[in-house]
Amino acid sequence: MQLTNRSKVIAKKEMSFMERLYIPAILGGLAITIKHLFKKKVSLRYPEVTRAFAPVYRGMHVLKRDELGRENCTACGLCAVACPAEAITMDAAERKSGEENLYREEKYAAKYEINMLRCIFCGLCEEACPKDAIYLTDRIVPSEYKRNSFIYGKDILVEKVDERIDVSKRKNEYSILN
Ligand code: SF4
Ligand code: SF4
Fold it and tell me: How many domains, in total, are found in the chain?
């Protein structure tokens, strides 16, 4: 092939004796590795250790109980109406005699589901609720293998009677009330 005037032939540089040994390069690499061993680490041992979230972070929902352990939600549907992602569905039921210690009001949510794949964590459901029944916590929604596993029902959303979550302030660690 004919070389033009603008072509430039670059001659391959011969390696020196030290370069051919590779030992200086290996030692240089090791020195960098050892230097980083003693530097402050930028990674965390997740999930055992988590990074502090911003105070306004919104994560997984919780359906609250009152101080007597009764479910606050009355299945009024306002959260579902407010939800821009149409992620919330519920079935209402009437409280029966003898269930006063389970549900705060005469109507309650027999079924309450949030599709976490639809949710955009806007917090509008929390804003719309007149009963202080739903809050977004700083808990991360865990990854799953099946799409159906992201539909959270009451078994996941309703807080445990003995592990009520203090949502009075958004911060990294919600304290356990009792
Ligand atoms: S956080 Fe927003 S998108 Fe998610 S369920 Fe509530 S209202 Fe819907
Ligand atoms: S969470 Fe609140 S807004 Fe939604 S149905 Fe229950 S009481 Fe109504």
Answer: 1
- Nearest ligand 1 atom to the CA of 126 is 6
- C-alpha of residue 160 to centroid of ligand 1, in Å: 22
Residue of 58, 81, 124, 138 to mutate, ligand 1, most atoms within 8 A of C-beta: 124
Q: Say yes or no: CB of residue 77 within 6 Å of ligand 2.
A: yes
- Note the pTM of the prediction, 2 decimals: 0.73
- What's the gap in Å between 12 CA and the centre of ligand 2? 74
CATH code assigned at 111 = 3.30.70.3270
Please determine, for residue 159, whether its predicted confidence score (pLDDT) is greater than 60: yes
How many residues are recorded in the chain? Answer: 178
**pLDDT band of 42, cuts 50, 70, 90:** confident
CA distances from 19 to 13, 25, 132 (A): 12, 8, 71
Token pair belonging to 134? 């739903």
Collapsing DSSP to helix, strand or coil, 136 comes out as strand
Q: 17 in a domain, yes or no?
A: no
Find the domain containing 112 and state its range.
Answer: 61-157
**How many angstroms separate the alpha carbon of residue 88 from the centre of ligand 2?**
10
- Number of helices and strands (H, E) in the chain? 5, 5
Q: Closest Cα to atom 5, ligand 2: which residue?
A: 75
Is the model's pLDDT at 96 over the cut of 90? yes
Q: 133-157, pLDDT tens digit by residue?
A: 999 998 889 899 999 999 999 999 9
